[in-house]
Amino acid sequence: MRAGGRGKMWLWRWRSNPLRRRDDVLEAWLLLAVWVLIAVGGTLAGLLTARAADDVFAQQRAERTPVRAVLLTGAPRAESKSYRALVKVRWTLADGSTRTGTTLVDGGQKAGSTVMLWTNTQGNPTTQPPSGTDAAVEAGFFGAASGLAVTGLTFGAGGAARWWLNRRRIDQWDSEWDLVGPRWGHKTG
Question: InterPro entries from the entry (predicted)?
Answer without folding.
Answer: MT1774/Rv1733c-like (IPR039708)
